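Quick one, T. Sequence first:
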Amino acid sequence: MNESAQGRIAARSRRQAMDWSLVLISQGIESTIEHSPETGAWELVVPEPDNEKAVEAIRLYEFENRRWGWRQDLFQGRVLFDWASLAWVFLICVFYWLDAQVRDLRSVGVMQGVAVSHGQWWRLFTSIWLHADPAHLAGNAIFGFTLLGLAMARYGTGIGLLGAYLAGVAGNGLVWLLSPGPGSLGASGMVMGALGLLAAQSFRHGPKDVHSAKYAVIGLIGGVLLFVLLGFGPETDIRAHFGGFVAGTVFGALLSFVPRPAFNVKLNILCGVAFTALVLWPWWHALSRYK
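Structure tokens:
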């Protein structure tokens, strides 16, 4: 790139510079990321003829993504976290309160394989929102807040939330297939689904070369090790955990084919609507049959 024909665009962090660089690539604009060790500044260097177009593309990109204010940089831009996972924590706390103080939800919503086999499919969904005691709720809330926040930041608020939720449903489906008798409840399958999504995020690099394939394998191994650490324990349903983790990993691998899912506003809104429907619809079925 000719030094005398360069435009420079200042960025706040390495993460932002990388995001903007991908935006410019999508617009067919060549760019180079430069970092000054002395000042710590990050810049995008573009050809001078493309400078105005590049600035406009970045401006539009930032404008379109203003609505995701919950998605923030942590640790100087090295980690993205979506604080909207707090809403999920609030929701499971509301269901726990309703179950304990207002109405017995367990009898109509707990996961029971025999009941599912007799057509009560909604239990695959409703059991995710029920917890046995405060300790059970607190454990899922803490780990879920962290893992969901990371997954939602990586894939998008709506996409990450729906993906983890469906992974939790898949975990309950595995429980139903393997053991149709005893009941189970809790959001741990969904939490493990979020972990699976994170384990698969390195798949986006694809098997382009040895290094990218190695990176994907390392990411998956790291996810498996975390699953072993968090997913096994006394009085835990290993089947639901395993099913949720595997399903989350599969969903994450499929999402690697979606370009920049976290910034696809329409897809995230659609997934958010689908998530809401898949919370309300099963509970409507459950409560309407047991008045």
